[in-house]
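Aim 2, interim progress. The first record below pairs a target sequence with its structure tokens.
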Amino acid sequence: MAHGIAWQKSSFSSGGDAANCVELAARQGTLLLRESDEPVTVIETTGTGLAALIRHLRDGY
């Protein structure tokens, strides 16, 4: 699933090629999320779903 996809690291990542960051990619109207230390585990969501997750986490769930 993750081959040929352009992943972008979070601006909050520690930089470099460290395996401790969240990566995001867009594909055919969906958003994909993964952790760089588990690149085969990918979560697929929509922009609305991601926004809801971020709000939930920011509000202290």
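The second target in this work package is listed in the same format:
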Amino acid sequence: MPRTAAPPVPAPAPSTARRRTSASVVLRSVLEHGPVARSTIARLTGLSPASVTDYCSRFTELGLIRESETPRRSQGVGRPHVPLDLDESRFVVGGVHVAVPYTTVALLDLRGRVVAVRELRHDTADGAGAGGGACGGADAILARAADALAALLARSPRLHCLGVGFAAGGWVDRDSGTVVEHPLLGWHEVPVRDVLAARTGLPVHVDGHARALVNAERLFGRARGSRSVLHLFVGNVVDSAFATNDEVHHGPRSQAGAIAHLPVPGGTEPCDCGRSGCLQAELSERTLCRRARRAGIVEGVNPMHVVAAAAAGDPVAARLLAERAGAVGRAVRLLLDVLNPETVVVTEIGILHREDCLAALREGVGDDRAAAVIPSSFPGSVLAVAGGSVALDVLYRDPLAASPEAI
């Protein structure tokens, strides 16, 4: 399949771009510092007090922010400051994350917190994970996700959904809203944005899950404020994303971060590409579960069963998890050498649940850079957050577009 670049997107007019950027930094300041006074926002952003007041008035009209109930007294004379905070009572975004065994559907508030969530196991008849072809299975999975999202919203009629974010592994083209290729699902050129928008009637935004989680970390997680962030996602799919100065690198047709077939020295696991020792083949959850079945620890393909066995005292399960975490650390070290980010965030099941796995990861990275490596900020909700953060990133980049009347 030829990998051609998507047509270039026309740049917005300078005045429009400046307005969008200013609106974004004001709302981000409320997110990061709220409750916060308008004068403080002006100081933090470098915008004039009049501009801050104008943007905050617009956000209040849209229902994105509200005045805090308790005014703060200034140090001198005069009226007390009335700080502003996000209004979490009105709006949510929907999140859809499609993994190999199941789809996660969720609602997230404006702070990226999960309000409601459902997991939908994939029926092999849908085509997911069966290797059989895509669009029939994709259509069924996306239809179930849209129905589940509608059901979650119906249970909370006071909440209004600003849009839907979709995330998945594989090759996901943000600009066209398409899953270009996901071999483990059997998806090929699936127009996710068009399908979900038609079924939900809502704006839909699409991206790869590693990039989505970088955005979640910089907005709501421990990587907030880092000048450069690398995210490594190690599940059934292994991929990465890299952000500098608040911008995630996508590359032509969003192909950046595809590391599944990087060679692992000494690796022996056969890969679907025909080679052996590819990074995804060596580190995927399918490989972990296969090794655990071979050792007689678990049956089936759920990696949480390996974690549970280790927690129950099984030394072989603990060893498998620690060995995998150490291998992930060595992969991180290679990426550190190439990209040299300030912060590395790793999403991997052992690291999220066990201190010995985090120690093994950092040992694999090496003492000189171990402190820069942290686990995901969303250990209990990483897939739900991945989907919803695609939509929340769009909101915080262009908050006035949350309402057509505001443009």
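The longest helix spans residues 315-339. This observation will shape the mutagenesis plan for the next reporting period.
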